[in-house]
Design brief:
about 325 residues; alpha+beta; Nuclear Transport Factor 2, Chain: A; 2 domains; seven-stranded mixed β-sheet; globular; disordered N terminus
Length: about 325
């Protein structure tokens, strides 16, 4: 379909909703890449049907209705995405990694730049970051699709019950009932409520800088001093995860020793700090190995979740390889070009 002059403004207006739609689809689906695919399909459907929209003021609700339908189509009968911590108890650091599970088994991260508006009200931004935490997104996957949609629209996006009812073709009573059941399920999961929203940004950056410095030096004494006693360390697509400074250090000095001499580029994901790890290669440069989502609480590192997927580097705007001249400077954290 060719673009016409009168269609250009609607295209521009559609784009203003891309981040909000991506955030909605991510919480619904649990995968950054699939959320972006869902939003792209939403935009295509909206553009093709733009002439059917009689009231431009109804554009937002119309777009979210399309996005919700796309998400439902994509979810279908797919299995519930999870984190390693949802799948079973922690393991000993000496245990086998286990077989790699399919991509569809895991909640995958999303770059903050894809979903957050840095100029948003600080309180609203903090609340939105909290609902991007991996544990919260994984908890949403426990909900039936309708309850999931209601909880996101009412609790995260702050829509009125009447607006949600219209979008989902149900009654206000039906929305309130679904929200009550969804809240009960989430509460039963006993999510840790201390998270990124409670951490001062400067404090978080300082903690990240200390971690990067310790990691690139592979200084385990300095690194483990930054960890909470119950810090979790996971590595999707492998199901194994370990907990606590002692187990994390043991893993990093054995199975994880391939990261000795690695370099780091920092980024932001799921409402908090993140970084790409680059392992040294025989050719003298560095190859992207994993994107790590760091979770923090009370001034310490509470989670290190390594996503070993090369395709994530492009999703986060990170190069897949670094040349041999790259030298990490933790006090001036390296950002992607």
């Amino acid at each position: 379909m060719l673009r016409t002059a009168d269609q250009a403004p609607i295209e521009q207006e559609l784009e203003t909703y891309r981040k909000a739609l991506t955030g909605y689809c991510y919480r619904m689906i649990g995968s950054g890449a699939e959320a972006e695919d869902a939003v792209q399909e939403t935009m295509v459907r909206a553009w093709k049907s733009a002439d059917k929209l009689q009231d431009r003021a109804a554009l937002k609700a119309w777009l979210f209705r399309i996005a919700n339908n796309v998400c439902l189509d994509m979810l279908g009968s797919a299995q519930r995405r999870a984190t390693p911590m949802d799948m079973g108890p922690s393991s000993n650091a000496d245990a086998p990694l286990g077989a790699m599970l399919a991509d569809s088994a895991w909640v995958r991260p999303i770059a903050d730049a894809k979903v957050l508006e840095p100029t948003a009200d600080p309180a609203e931004l903090a609340a939105e970051k909290e609902t991007l935490r991996l544990a919260f997104v994984a908890a949403l996957q426990h909900l039936p699709a309708k309850q999931r949609a209601v909880l996101i629209l009412r609790e995260v996006l702050r829509w009125q019950a009447s607006e949600v009812a219209e979008l989902l073709d149900t009654s206000v009573a039906g929305v309130n009932s679904a929200l009550q059941r969804a809240r009960a399920t989430i509460e039963e999961l006993h999510l840790d409520q201390s998270g990124v929203a409670d951490v001062d940004e400067a404090e978080q950056k300082a903690l990240l800088a200390k971690y990067v410095k310790a990691f690139e030096a592979y200084d385990m004494a300095a690194l483990t001093a930054l960890l909470k006693d119950d810090a979790a360390f996971s590595m999707p697509p492998f199901p194994l995860w370990v907990v606590g400074p002692e187990q994390i250090e043991r893993f990093m000095m054995t199975t994880g020793a391939k990261c000795v001499g690695s370099k780091v580029l920092v980024t932001e994901a799921n409402g908090g700090p993140a970084f790409g790890i680059y392992n040294p290669t025989p050719e003298g440069d560095y190859a992207g190995w994993a994107v790590v989502v760091m979770e923090t609480s009370a001034g310490r590192v509470s989670g290190l979740h390594h996503f070993i997927y090369p395709d994530l580097f492009a999703e986060f705007g990170l190069p897949l390889r670094l040349d041999g001249e790259h030298v990490g400077q933790p006090d001036e954290l390296q950002q992607p070009a």
